[in-house]
């Protein structure tokens, strides 16, 4: 009886899951045979079969909502009751197939949803389609599930797309749930930081008095928070240093961040450009802040594997990092393969172009300015300097260079 209590009673919209659960229950009770088989002809087996059939009929009846009992109250065998319910609730019509397929195609997940629940709903729709005779291939199911993910998971989607083969649906589901767990861990850390900030608003003195009430999420001890825990600080020291690189412009000129959200390459240093056409363009950052590009041109760079040239790169001096657009690279036929700690970009022929390391929460590639590009810049600067030297009445060349460097 406890097993029956755990099964949701049959209603108008849960037959797919109900039938699986009740079938499993009848198999566990050794009663499924009487549902799918006819009564034996020999007299010795009839009495046992009839007894088991009544048990199976009673089990099915107890798993049906009172409002739905009207359909099987006149049934005298479990086989008849099962057949009647199947014919009423299992709709294999074209309309049912279209309805399920629409639900699958328009399925969407938001960051506010619990991923485990929503992904289970997606898989249930796939199973229901299978029951009505529509088989959804694994690759197609994986593609639809990836398309249903929110924009905030774009980097995860790009990482999956960069693989040679799409993962099977069960593997993809596992990866999505792992991602949700990591995001929840990050949220917990952010909540902890917010708590610390709010406490400090009341003054440092009061904050010191309340330190004894704070519990560290890392070691469980009182008096400090996770970010101040000795074990945590030691473990995260390298990541903290990496994050500082992105905040210090002078240390970050050779660093390029892999960005799946950027529609174009962006560079903060004019010295990287082979040629630069003055052009003003609005740039909207992920934070919502708007800055402006001052020009567009090409950049020649040297990676650990080869020399590359980036075209239509925006010159954005207000940036604190250079941005390498993954989308732009994919359009040119290149491929990117991500792993836990690094990413490799290859040409369409499979040759290595560059590699990026995962530091400070982002994939970063270090690319030096190609020497030929430096010479070109020097030539351009020299020509420009001579031109302005003449226009300003042959003033000192050092003053011309100072004006040039200050734009």
TrEMBL record:
The question of whether Metal-binding is a record keyword is answered with: yes
The entry's protein name is (Mediterranean fruit fly) hypothetical protein
Q: Which InterPro entries match?
A: PolX-like_BBD, Znf_CCHC, Znf_CCHC_sf
Extract the GO molecular function terms from the UniProt entry.
Answer: nucleic acid binding; zinc ion binding
List each coiled-coil range: none
Can you give the residue ranges of the CCHC-type domain? 216-230
Record keywords: Metal-binding, Zinc, Zinc-finger
């Amino acid at each position: 009886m406890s097993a029956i209590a755990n099964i949701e009673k049959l209603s108008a919209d849960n037959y797919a899951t109900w039938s699986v659960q009740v079938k499993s229950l009848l198999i566990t009770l050794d009663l499924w045979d009487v549902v799918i088989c006819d009564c034996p002809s020999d007299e010795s087996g009839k009495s046992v079969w009839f007894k088991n059939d009544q048990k199976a009929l009673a089990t099915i009846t107890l798993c049906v909502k009172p409002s739905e009992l009207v359909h099987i109250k006149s049934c005298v065998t479990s086989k008849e009751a099962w057949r009647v319910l199947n014919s009423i609730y299992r709709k294999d019509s074209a309309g049912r197939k279209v309805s399920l397929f629409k639900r699958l195609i328009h399925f969407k997940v938001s960051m506010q949803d619990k991923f485990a629940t929503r992904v289970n709903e997606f898989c249930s729709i796939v199973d229901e389609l299978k029951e009505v005779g529509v088989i959804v291939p694994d690759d197609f199911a994986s593609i639809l599930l990836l398309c249903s993910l929110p924009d905030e998971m774009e980097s995860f989607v790009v990482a999956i797309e960069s693989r040679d083969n799409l993962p099977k649906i069960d593997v993809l589901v596992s990866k999505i749930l792992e991602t949700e767990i990591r995001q929840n861990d990050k949220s917990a850390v952010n909540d902890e930081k917010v708590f610390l900030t709010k406490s400090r608003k009341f003054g440092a003195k009061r904050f010191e008095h309340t330190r004894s009430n704070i519990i560290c999420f890392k070691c469980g001890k009182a008096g400090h928070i996770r970010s101040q825990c000795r074990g945590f600080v030691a473990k995260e020291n390298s990541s903290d240093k990496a994050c500082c690189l992105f905040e210090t412009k002078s240390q970050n000129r050779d660093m390029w961040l892999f960005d799946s959200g950027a529609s174009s390459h962006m560079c903060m240093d004019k010295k990287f450009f082979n040629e630069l056409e003055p052009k003003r363009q609005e740039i909207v950052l992920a934070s919502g802040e708007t800055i402006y590009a001052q020009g567009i041109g090409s950049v020649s760079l040297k990676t650990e594997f080869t020399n590359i040239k980036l075209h239509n790169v925006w010159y954005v001096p207000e940036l604190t990092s250079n941005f390498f657009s993954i989308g732009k690279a994919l359009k040119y036929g290149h491929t990117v393969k991500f792993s836990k700690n690094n990413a490799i970009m290859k040409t369409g022929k499979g040759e290595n172009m560059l590699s990026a390391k995962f530091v400070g929460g982002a994939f970063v590639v270090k690319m030096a300015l190609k020497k030929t590009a430096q010479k070109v810049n020097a030539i351009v600067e020299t020509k420009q300097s001579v031109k302005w030297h003449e226009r300003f009445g042959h003033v000192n060349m050092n003053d011309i260079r100072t004006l040039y460097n200050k734009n």
